Amino acid sequence: MGCWQRLLIFGGVLLRGGGGASVPLAGSRVLVCRRQLSGADSETLKQRRAQIMSRGLPKQKPIEGVKQVIVVASGKGGVGKSTTAVNLALALAANDSSKAVGLLDVDVYGPSIPKMMNLKGNPELSQSNLMRPLLNYGIACMSMGFLVEETAPVVWRGLMVMSAIEKLLRQVDWGQLDYLVVDMPPGTGDVQISVSQHIPISGAVIVSTPQDIALMDARKGAEMFRKVHVPVLGLVQNMSVFQCPKCKHRTHIFGADGARRLARTLDLDVLGDIPLHLNIRETSDTGQPIVFSQPESDEQVKKPMRRSLLVLDAILKEMKKMLSEDKP
């Protein structure tokens, strides 16, 4: 018997051998495609698929009172995404005291913002039954970590997680914010897609170490945002280099310039390099982020602060450029 041929079938299954008879299921309608689709037919099919897929997509609705949303994401966990998000929010506020800044932690399974921002307690409810963010260092913060015990694991399946995300997006009284920085969970799953499709996002910042393993997932994160039409502002190369505090020797523990190579591949900008520095780790663990707690320290400590502000400047420039391109 000859090779099996593939047939395009509507409403049933048809098997056909090289020399045998066709055997359709009873009552099925069968269309046999014996040639490749033409270019026009192929394009029509793509458009039809796009129409069908778009039917189920939710309509984006802005978060009430919030002007600009910046998401900080990474494909891999443990690359310093939350630390970057916290210091970015504080740098935004320090850069212009007239701007109101908020910080939203949508990492349901591993919220870090409460500890990094030195916040505890449950949010109060407003008269309209909305949760009021907790405030510290001039930043309004909301996190799943405020709603569960610090040591309690969140053992939830998808539907419960998505319900929690919906509450964090829609049932928080932010007041009036110029910027809302969103600390995303690692990966490219339901939470990332839901946030991207439900609210308009000004831009995404991808955080990665220079290590190849982290860069593989960082690339997936950037490509995901492009697929859901979220502008990628650029990459932050975190833990880029370690300088020994005694001998001043510089070591690239996670490799050198990996994020720069990835940025060239994706045609993105590197927004900045953040070193692997003891003070950044210590201030994060004690809930006193370095951008707030050590802005005027000695030269070695000021470097991470300055680098954070350089990253902020690069982000703001990218946002302004994208906004100008959108104008007719």
Automatic annotation (TrEMBL):
Q: Main localisation, per the record? A: mitochondrion
Q: Where in the cell is it found?
A: Mitochondrion
Cofactor entry: [4Fe-4S] cluster
Q: What does UniProt give as the signal peptide span? A: 1-20
- Asked if the Swiss-Prot or TrEMBL record annotates the protein with the keyword Cytoplasm, the reply is no
Identify the HAMAP family for this entry.
Mrp_NBP35
Q: What is this protein called?
A: Iron-sulfur cluster transfer protein NUBPL
State the organism of origin: Zalophus californianus (California sealion)
From which lineage does this chain's organism come? Eukaryota, Metazoa, Chordata, Craniata, Vertebrata
Q: Which gene encodes it?
A: NUBPL
